[in-house]
Amino acid sequence: MSSSIQTTIIRQPADGDTALTPNNKSAEVIHENRAGWLMLAPACILLVLFIGIPVALAFVLSFTNARTISPNPTRFIGLNNFTRLFSDPTFWRALLNVAIFAVVVVPVQAGLGLFLAVLINKKVRSSVFFRTVYFLPVVTSMVVVSLLWMFIYQNDGMLNQVLEKLTFHHWTAVDWLNNPQTALGAIIVMSIWQAVGQHMLIWLSGLQTISAELYEAAELDGCDAWHQFTNVTWPGLRSTRNMILITITIAALSLFTQINVMTQGGPRDSTTTVVFEAVRSGFQQQEMGYASAITLVFFLIIMAITAVQRRITHSN
Amino acid sequence: MTIGTASSISVHEDKTIKEKYRRNRLSIGGWLVRILFACLFAFPLIFMVVSSFKPDDEIMADLSSVKAFLPTGNVSLDNYAQVFTRVPAGRFLLNSVFITLVTVVLGVLVNSMAAFAIQRLNIRFKKIIFTFILATLMVPFETYAIPLLWWINQLPRPAIDQFGLYFTRGWMDTLTIQIIPFIANAFSVYLYMQYFETIPKDLDEAAKVDGAGWFRIYSRIVMPLSGPATATVVILSFLPMWNQYLWPLMVVQSENNRPVMIGVQYFQQMTTSWGQIMAYSSLITLPIIAVFVIFQRQFVSSIAATGVKG
């Protein structure tokens, strides 16, 4: 700090106006500090109020019997919420469901996104058109997408009708969303359809950072398309890859909107999720303490996964 | 690469131009795959828009043929008229426009100011604050939505009436509560900081010599030069705001404060008319798609910007 003051002192007298004494200068430092805090304050206050405190509250409320509106004062109840939570089969089912969802969606969506990105990473005019079309579902809200696919999936809906046509009426209609065997799968397919365009774009920006010379060199070495992909493209996408894996994983674990619009967790809990259970107990049943416990477990899982993924990234 | 006689270079370049051309030309297979995927992504949306103009029985009848994707038969605006008479759709649209607009504008202001302070000014505890802001990037909204709901129920709300400032507990069921938690955004701060780094500090110094204060430097010099960063921040914050679902679901009760996505519930509760559902869906989707198609270049670079974090 003192060195910067000195350099400015040396430079300033040349300007000829009020000679700055060190005293004036330290007033300026104080002024700069105050101006900085004033500009920083709105963002900081809002982030503390609406993210910092709520996250901290998740830890506190989980150990209480807090309710949204309650005549009784909130009491500390130790680990009760957690013992109840871990003995609740619905919660385990929710964990299993998001795990299945993530295990399928993460590789498929990332892979398909990369495939589409490679597909349209050519400098021809039609690429812009295809890029736009592939991205359309992403700008469509998940609520609208869910409604649309409810129609596609229903008993006399589009999917069954098309399958019936294709099999020459050998197909028996499946009620995709009301069948515990198919409901989660149906939601997985729809979710990938909606979000894959976004990851295609992120891959695409990663692809465009790889220099064309590398491809030319590979071609001179006699690499075919597949070997170019494994030797140039794949290693060149390392940082993009890590980014995409983390974001898709977190989004997959946070599954909520589709479930709320399409199935309400049913049939027989086959599509319930962690966030859906948290909202059900916290919002509908107003059991804030219990819902916070769910939230906290979810928060810790997300943090653990992010940490593990970062670890893997950095050790490579 | 750079070593070689002049003649061999030109031959080589000639070859690479041809190579490039070959690489960028599409094979028939390439075309087919591209078109196949285009159909896969576009047809459900085309179906939605086309069906919004058809009566219910025709939507069902057309389902198993290509007619499902074509505006054939008894095409009319009846579904749209029904949507506006049965549901306060205009009100919902207005609410969503208001919520989105205010959040985006205040977000640009608040986040760019914070970024400017961190990137340009010497402030005490800067490191700690920056770390805190970055840390908030790591937690998805879903992980603290429930405690936030409890929190805003406890939080006093400043309000003003003819007797002056007073505090109530009325955060719930307002437009304000759909806006305030989403104004400050760590990723926007981060994007602005990245961009401010590219603006030379000599400009600040020159302005300071002319007697400009920090706020003036921010508003008159740095911000006007940061158009691309602002475009990215606007695009990235506008879409999730318009599509808000979980939060308004929990905090809004009255019809007057509902945003468009919550309006969908009306159609699920009433006897299902798919034509009307498609009309409402088109109504809340097509404006966004139009904005996207017009600004698609900016959209693409904004989404690409989300790939650089981490």
TrEMBL record, chain B:
InterPro entries membership: MetI-like (IPR000515), MetI-like_sf (IPR035906)
Superkingdom, taxonomy of origin: Bacteria
Pfam families per the UniProt record, alphabetical: BPD_transp_1
Keyword Transcription (UniProt): no
Keywords, comma-separated and alphabetical: Cell membrane, Membrane, Transmembrane, Transmembrane helix, Transport
Compartments (UniProt record): Cell membrane
Membrane topology: Multi-pass membrane protein
Keyword Cell membrane assigned: yes
SUPFAM superfamilies: MetI-like (SSF161098)
Main subcellular location of this protein, as a coarse class: membrane
Ranges for domain ABC transmembrane type-1: 93-295
Residue spans crossing the bilayer: 31-53, 92-116, 128-152, 172-193, 221-242, 277-295
Protein family: Belongs to the binding-protein-dependent transport system permease family.
Protein name (Swiss-Prot/TrEMBL): Carbohydrate ABC transporter permease
